[in-house]
Give the backbone structure.
Amino acid sequence: MDSALIIEKGIFIVVIFAITMLMAMYSTLAERKIAAWLQDRIGPNRAGKGGILQPLADGLKLFAKEEFMPDTPNKFLFILGPAISMTMALLTSAVLPWGDKLEIAGHTVILQATDIDVAMLYVFAVLSVGVYGIMIGGWASNNKYSLMAALRASSQLISYEVAMGLSIVALIMMSGTMSLREIAAQQEGMNWNVFYQPLGFIIFLVCSFAETNRTPFDLAECEAELIGGHHTEYSSMKMGFYLFGEYAAMFISSAILAILYFGAYNYPGMSWVAENWGANMANILGIVVLFIKICFFIFFYMWVRWTIPRFRYDQLMNLGWKMLIPLAIANIVLTGVIIIIADKYL
Amino acid sequence: MSLLTIFYILAAVTLATGFMTVISKNPIHSAIYLVLCFFSIGGHYLLFNAQFLALVHIIVYAGAIMVLILFTIMLMNLNKENEPIKSIASVLAAVVAFALLCFVMLAVFIKAMPQIENYQSSGQDYQSIKVLGKVLLNEYMVPFEFVSILLLVAMIGAVLLSKKQKTVE
Amino acid sequence: MSLDTISLSGRKKEVSNKKMNFWESIYLVAILKGLMITIKHLFKRKVTIKYPEQIREFSPVYRGQHMLKRDEKGRENCTACGMCAVACPAEAITMTAAERKPGEEHLYREEKYASVYEINMLRCIFCGLCEEACPKDAIYLTESKVIVKSASHREDFIYGKDKLVMPLEMAIKNSKSLN
């Protein structure tokens, strides 16, 4: 491996990391602003113009808070919990294609940290490991309420991972690849997967709400009535890591939704732009389009949060196991049948 | 850093976490060491360039099985106080069994050494899931289906066991 | 007309527990409807008043800090009769009467006046009974349009004449507008 490639990838990874952090930071502001707008209020507008510096102020406040450690024999695991949550939220971004490629001074830069053959499995592996952050944190708090909340949260995550995986199987069958880059490339123009897999998309969307612990599936926290779920005992920046990891996860899962179902960086008229304004211009526009799609999904997450009330726990489990999983399996069967028919007769 | 160094580091992590799994008193600590052990084994698979195997290993073992085991351990509330005290006979039996196992393993490794002298390259990229899927569903179709039926039976069995039994009047 | 058909607000709705059909039971339509309602509010006019920059108008009957009035010639109305102190349910008002000296006719309207007039704002409940009790139209809660400010010492809440009597500029303005 030549060192130029390592430097290129290094810079790219740092940029992606910075963008993810920035998006997560401003998601906190966006959440408060959108909540306010949907409730006919104005929202935070004191720090900077229109509250643009609010995330910095929030971060500063979290840093300045007293670091409180419960009397637990597992200090290391107590710290490990939020660290795992945050890391796992950020790790996924390694395989996401943020754009096609750019020609910079005769050198082709692929806008993806790494293009592995089994990217989809990688996403699921990271997701399934993310459960440990909640479980270990809740257990190490040495508090039975934290432990129970951690068990609730992790059983929710495990249940919805199954349905999420099954809904993706149909998409993989259709596109015949697990590489996110190829899936993105296949959706050229308006061939977005959402038109071919509407049921799969809805299942995936519902599951990603559950996976990111967002309303109506925020039983892990239940901000209004539980004390704080698995992070009851956390304070200062450790608590900030849990919350921040959640927003980072929201950004990443919005990106996955956009890439898998909403055509990634593709937009109608991309080839026209490439012909008239050059391939680089088309690809830069593609990145912008991808980020617009991601922002739309982040907005959608928040929009739903301030619209739909929370599920009860038994409703959550019923929906996961008795509705979404059978639907996802039916979707797989349907996709298989349609693929065979299409192969035979078209 | 050469691949060999990475291998040594991974092997050390695997062995250390494996031992810690057995040694540590706290069942939750053992479970977490086991998770780390699974990750390092995933790393070994990656050294073989078996990405699919590595990721599936992490999903299945670290992501599913160990989570469930942690779940049960957390719910069971295993403390030092209610740990059953084992008799000397059972400890002795365990030591003997372990020694025998070590003996067998050593014998296997020593005997197997000369057998793997060179690998034959078939020219096919077996880390690619396309090739893997074709091999699984063509050459190994029957065992593959048997495994799926086995898993299905196990799943149905688990559902049946967890269902409330109707009392017979 | 029976009771259950009457609807005073005109918005009465019968609640029914009918079984949901398939489309209703998957809630997708209901969720979409809800999303449409919330998105409408995104574009509605916001009702917030940004306080330090914008100040909400006082209503005409707003009762704030008391004001001891002066008449059109700038003389204090109060004669220290004590009716307000008697009427006060919170016993917040106290005063000391004094006799007007010759040469002070331009300051006090009548020959008796309050040399000390204090209201304890921590006790005051802003009910306005002092205003109703006053026979000389001397005390008003609606004129000053000032909110009693917070302070960090109890003594600071005892407002004397320096804070309560109508400022001279206001009295001058009043007399000008009358003439």
